[in-house]
């Protein structure tokens, strides 16, 4: 703040910041300099981690000048900034992405080679920042990539967790969790800015006071913590832009607890500081059924309050008229996790900036928009009034006041319908008094969107029905997307080269151009080359798995992948039932072994550590895999692979090698899915239900190139309303009976019938996600898969058409939709 005006005289200090020369020599020089003077080693003394860090610093140096420019421009310009508020960013590795964006891949490879270093060895040591659970966190990472590539001024705000999503290991086929110490070897991609720290307060009381004749309220907090920003550069692809991802880390303030300090127990006081630093210690690994833990609410408020303050103080010009805030910012709420930002902005405007309530509310409503990512009622976040009032007393008062005004509006509109009022209230009463964060977000947001057409429709019809009646125009859809840079260009270099040869290079930023491949699906020569790429990707995956100690992939196998968080609604058990049924069919002679295509079933999934049923399903997959893969009676035709610790890095090897994409959630439960998009884009055919974005994928790729099965969402509702009895399906279908009986018999648990008993009885007597009801339809669809795969020409043709027709699922398109329908912000330059 108090930096004196600098008056430099040296010509170097007066010159603009310049990046190192974009040449092999320029790169090598900068690399060696970083190795020597930042890492503090000579080339001959350096190890691979030193070299990796020096390489990362070098790439960073190239991006830096652009970044300075963009930040200056962002501060000076009058454009609206998109502030994406997300508790999670599942970034994946940075090195390759940044080399690609800055057009440095070839230069770096050659410069390192001339230093005697194979860049692949350095790639291998990068630890990915796993600062997210799954789809929601990865979506945020795709969005910041697209925003930078589209030159939209944007800041991604989040938390710099010291420990990201846990590392998964298997012990006797069961998941064990290990801490993800991703920062241990250094973090070359971010910069700490302790001088720009924000002080974030908690707890205490509120009081009213007389402010020159006006009665105002102020918050008298009890303790506080510093939020230190760490900036990461988010380079756009080949456009010279660099946006910012600003992640906050909690650091104790000196005056964390003056009371203890003053008591004279100095050592105890210093130890107490770690309490505050716990806030950014660890990512919660639950991707649904939030536990309502105090630390989690602390995390949410911590990053959102820091982000709002940062935007107002550091991004807006000094003395900015906050009445105009909506012209300069949109805060996009990535699910309910940042929704506490709504009362926080109100507090800042009303208590601190002394703007009158109604005006402040009008501003706030224009500054937020809310994206919902779920349909499961248990996943909708609520905070007990008790906890929220203790941790954030002023915010609770503000929420009550927002609710009072909102319920008045409901009465005006619908009359005194007390049941409706109770149903719509932001405050719920049962089973305990709580704040319904999705309702708060809906009331406060200028727009509310779901993440696929079906999901948005179900939000309007069910989850948020009364709100949609009240404000039909508030609701909109933006179907998710994925970044083609990471998930096609980087993950699948051979297919990318083939596409570029056929269509030119523009597809990377204009994915609809993939349509040009449609004509080539009927070209035998192109099909052959496409198939050769798939085969090569399978060999590459095989090498990656081999390095992890997994068995090799067989060349001629259909690679059937199910990669996503482990969840009952996603129905990994349905997949297991198919495997067991096929195995049982071959062994019993019911199935003609020659009609079964050789297949490898490949799973990747982490379970929330406290989710018992999900962990039992993991155990079952591994147990079935052990038996099936080893049984000589299936003649090597069926293999099950479940590499531990599925993450973005592993996804980048699996997706390009996949033939079949399993998207088999119960209709009406998967909001969108994004893995489904990545797999289709890489030429896998989908076997899927009419759920989430599968609906749109099927519409685009065509029924002939998609294996649809299962109940539709209305059929699910009807069967459920009818009183669903899974045991009836078990009785009716012999294939299902044999499969379940085999599991129950102990065939996969050394004869011990107790191991999977809870799983079996859950299926027979509860089966919330109706795996048994969809089983026979699923098996029939799998028979169609076998038949289709037997015709390789036809299969490859379908695979090409999947690629050609998936351009819609670029996150660039998703960003355009957000810009047009919600943000109304424009690119710069
Ligand atoms: O968000 C996922 C949905 O399940 C997918 O259908 C969708 O494609 C994706 C992106 O829109 N949701 C998700 O990943 N949720 C979480 O990870 C999550 C994390 C923490 C939490 C609740 C949910 N408390």
Automatic annotation (TrEMBL):
Highest taxon listed in the record's lineage: Bacteria
Glycosyltransferase found in the keyword field: yes
Broad enzyme group: transferase
Keyword Glycosyltransferase: yes
Cofactor: pyridoxal 5'-phosphate
Pfam family, one: Phosphorylase
Keyword terms of this UniProt record: Carbohydrate metabolism, Glycosyltransferase, Pyridoxal phosphate, Transferase
Single GO MF annotation: 1,4-alpha-oligoglucan phosphorylase activity
E.C. number: 2.4.1.1
Catalytic activity: [(1->4)-alpha-D-glucosyl](n) + phosphate = [(1->4)-alpha-D-glucosyl](n-1) + alpha-D-glucose 1-phosphate
Record function comment: Allosteric enzyme that catalyzes the rate-limiting step in glycogen catabolism, the phosphorolytic cleavage of glycogen to produce glucose-1-phosphate, and plays a central role in maintaining cellular and organismal glucose homeostasis.
Family: Belongs to the glycogen phosphorylase family.
Name recorded for this polypeptide: Alpha-1,4 glucan phosphorylase
Species of origin: Microbacterium galbum
